[in-house]
Amino acid sequence: MLKSCACGYTMKLILRTVIHAHKVSIANVPVYSCENCSRNEVFPGVKEDLGRLIGRFGSKPEPDRIRFDEVHELAGVLRHLLERKLPLQASEVARRTEERTNELLDLLLVADSLGDEKWKAELKCRLAQLSAQYIA
Ligand SMILES: [Zn+2]
């Protein structure tokens, strides 16, 4: 998962903490980072969801700490790979994404058999987060 930077160097995909309005710390946000010029870019596949999350806090938020890997499935996939010391390569990301998608689909079956509409809606939202990376 590499991207070229405006300075000509290669940007690496990493997870970093983003601070919003000096108050809210959001850990494990997927970001492309350049070691040469220190430029950072939020990974396109999570940009919209991160924006929505920050939007909920407004411009004068109460201090808070959030783990983005717990609210966003794609960040969860990357965190899973890093915890196992696996490289953040497209092939590894695709493999874990498929595995996680299957886990969520299994849960969706359970939620469906229980008739739990709220849980079903949450699972569908999480499944959409995993497919969003391909749109980016
Ligand atoms: Zn650069």
TrEMBL record:
Protein name, entry field: YgiT-type zinc finger protein
**What species does this protein belong to?**
Cohnella lubricantis
